[in-house]
Every structure is written in C-alpha cells, then in structure tokens.
Amino acid sequence: MQVPLLDLKLQNQPLKSRILAEIESIADSQGFILGPVVERLEKAVAEYCGAGYAFGVSSGTDAQLVLLMALGIGPGDAVVTTPYTFFATAGCISRVGARPVFVDVDPDTYNISVAGVARALETVPGIKAIVPVHLFGCCADMAALLELGRQYGIPVLEDAAQALGAEHPLGGAGAIGDAGWFSFYPTKNLGAFGDAGMVVCRDAELAARLKAFRNHGMEPRYYHKWVGGNFRIDAIQAAVLGVKLPHLDGWSAGRRDRAAFYRREFERLGTPLRLPVEPWAGSGRSNHHIYNQFVVQTTDRDALRAHLQQAGIGTEIYYPLPLHLQECFQSLGYKPGDFPVAERCARESLALPIYPELTEPQQAYVVGEIARFFEARPA
Ligand SMILES: Cc1ncc(COP(=O)(O)O)c(C=O)c1O
C-alpha cells in the first residue's frame, strides 16, 4: 500500500468543474487582479475567522511583510518570536530591518513559551511586537500573550499561516490579537492553485494602511503616501479559495477524526510516541485543533522515517533546523543549546499523513507499520 504524506488530487478533483467555471468567468471579465472576486473572499474570510478587516495578498509571507511595514516596524526594532516555525516568520522580521528575538517553545504544544516571552520583554530593549505562531493548527496561549502585549503596550501579531479555522477560547486564529495572517500555499488546509495569503486586523486605521501598503502605498491612484509594495492577490486564486472555503469546516472535522484514530490506536497499542496535545479541547469549540499537521516525537525519528519510507508511507520533518541556528541568522549570536526544547523537537518530530480523504485502511497501515518498527527495536 502507498500512503503519501498528502494527496491534493483527492480534494481538488471533486471541485474541479466549479473551479474551472470560476476561472473561465475571470477570463471573460479580464479582471485578473483584486476586484470583486477578491473582495468577496476577503469578506468571507473575515467573517469566518471573526476579524474586522481582511486583505488578500500574494502569499502568507507577504501578508506578514506588509503588516510589519504598515506598522512601521523596522531598523532598530526587535520582535519576539519562536525559533520553531517555518522560516518566513523570522525572515520577514529581518527583511524589514528589525531583529528577531527568539525564545524557546512549550514542550507539549510546540508553541511559543509565555515565560520565555515575558523574560525577553523584561530583558531585551526595543521589542515592538510579539509574534506567536499557531503551529500545526493549534493556537498558542493567546490570553497570556495578549496580557503581556497590554502590559508592554505592544501588539500581538498572529502567524496563523497553518491555522485558518482553528479556535481558541478567545476566538478564531488570526483574529484574536491585533492582527494576523494566513497562508493559502497549496498544501495548507485551505490551499490555492499557487501562492496566496491574507492579512487580517481589527483596527480601521491599520486596515486602511494595509490596503494601501498592499498596493505600493498608493491612495488615490498614482499618489503614494507610503512606500508599500506589490503584495496583491490574483483574482484566480481568490476564486479557487472562494469555492473551497465553504468546505473547510468539513475538512477540519475530517482531519480531527483522523487525529482521533491515530491517538486511539497508538494508545491502545502502547506505541512509544509523544502525541500532539490539545490544550483548548475543553473550550467547547470543535475546531480547537485543526491538525494542519499531525506531528509525533520519538528519539528514533530518523530510523522510523526510513522504515516508513520503505513501507511506502510519506512523512515530513517540520523543521529539521530551528531558526536560531540557521546560517543566515548567525550574526544574531545564538548557539546550539540556547533553546533546548526547539532543538529537541527538530531532532525528534515527524509529521504523519493527515488529510480528510485519508482512508481508515491507509491509517491502519501507517499505525501497523509504526507498531512493527517499535516491536523490532530493543526496548
Ligand atoms: C508558520 C508559517 N508561517 C509563514 C508561512 C509562509 O506562507 P507562504 O508559504 O504562503 O508564504 C508558512 C507557510 O509555509 C508557515 O507555515
């Protein structure tokens, strides 16, 4: 049996004719960039996550970049974030000329450590924003982070690139703090047919800036109040996303069901894996974890991965090298051992196949192969 890490064809095929009809109507209208299709999607996403304002942009990365630019964060400023995330989270901070200040993550949730953020705020001068990442589809501890933001008078900006639809007791991912962003990279839980993203916020003045910064800081046409950039989303991507968005809650439920299956089976078999935790499960909200990824940990990670590959099972390592140890950030002065939890996660974590179309026999095969691997290992 073959079990790929992800098979997008299964999701896209049933929607293909509707998506192609939307694309055809864009071809007929010749409205390729921004316009009514984009505005419809922005309204739908704002309503879906509970944000006041939403702006479609060219990628999740550009969503963060345009937000930092619109907030005036730049040279001389620092931004506190996690070293255990996709590169873009810290890359954007650097690209606007600010300094990423890393703090370790929580060993159970993979999300930024609140105690670490509090220590950084106490000791590092010039921190202008807190950037938590809702990693793998589960929200960071937003209540505590918002309290720290209030205490220091700085915004909390949510990297919700992996978490559209995820819910925290305080609200929808991306719309809990001062602003946030989503990625519609094709492999995300809501994926476009190319790069796309969205930035959301609650404040009208920031919204006006974001709208202008997305389009060269231009307002009105050919008058530039700010130096923004071309961060616009294509209408075709918005059309694809508009067809898919109504299915997202159903897909999230499918992911949660598959996560529950893995959990039940690994617990029943006593498989020695560290399983993902669900810190907001008691909140009464169903989307407390949307399992963009199902990530387990084991000290035998590399051997397990090789075994699964042999068995035709796709896996991925998110992420093999934490950001404080990346070559491009050497000048920040971090060294191995600075963030032991993030470093351990990088050594031990493994993402297993999880998507709504994954069948029970496929999942049973994955579980069986993992159990077989551990049975053959000396205890
Ligand atoms: C946590 C995180 N932040 C930011 C991004 C950047 O999004 P994009 O690939 O759409 O630029 C991603 C997506 O890969 C991500 O996973």
Describe the structure concisely:
The chain is an alpha/beta fold and 379 residues long. Helices cover 40% and strands 11% of the residues. It has helices at 8-12, 16-29, 36-49, 60-70, 88-95, 114-123, 142-152, 204-213, 235-244, 248-269, 301-310, 340-348, 360-375; strands at 53-57, 78-81, 99-102, 127-131, 157-159, 167-168, 171-172, 179-183, 197-201, 294-297, 349-352.
Topology:
Blueprint: H1 8-12, H2 16-29, H3 36-49, E1 53-57, H4 60-70, E2 78-81, H5 88-95, E3 99-102, H6 114-123, E4 127-131, H7 142-152, E5 157-159, E6 167-168, E7 171-172, E8 179-183, E9 197-201, H8 204-213, H9 235-244, H10 248-269, E10 294-297, H11 301-310, H12 340-348, E11 349-352, H13 360-375
Parallel strand pairs: 2-3, 2-4, 5-8
Antiparallel strand pairs: 1-9, 6-7, 8-9, 10-11
Helix pairs in contact: 2-9, 3-9, 4-5, 4-8, 6-7, 10-13
Bound molecules: pyridoxal-5'-phosphate.
Commentary on this structure:
With 379 residues, the chain is of the alpha/beta class. The chain folds into 2 domains: 8-246, Aspartate Aminotransferase, domain 2 (3-Layer(aba) Sandwich), CATH 3.40.640; 248-375, Aspartate Aminotransferase, domain 1. The chain is built from 13 helices and 11 strands. The protein has helices spanning 8-12, 16-29, 36-49, 60-70, 88-95, 114-123, 142-152, 204-213, 235-244, 248-269, 301-310, 340-348, 360-375, and strands at 53-57, 78-81, 99-102, 127-131, 157-159, 167-168, 171-172, 179-183, 197-201, 294-297, 349-352. The strands form 4 sheets. Strands 1-9-8-5 form a 4-stranded mixed sheet. Helix 5 (88-95) links the parallel strand 2 (78-81) and strand 3 (99-102). It starts with 7 loop residues before the first helix and ends with a helix. The mean pLDDT is 97. Pyridoxal-5'-phosphate (PLP) is lined by residues 59-61, 85-86, 88-89, 133, 159, 161-162, 183, 185, 195, 197.
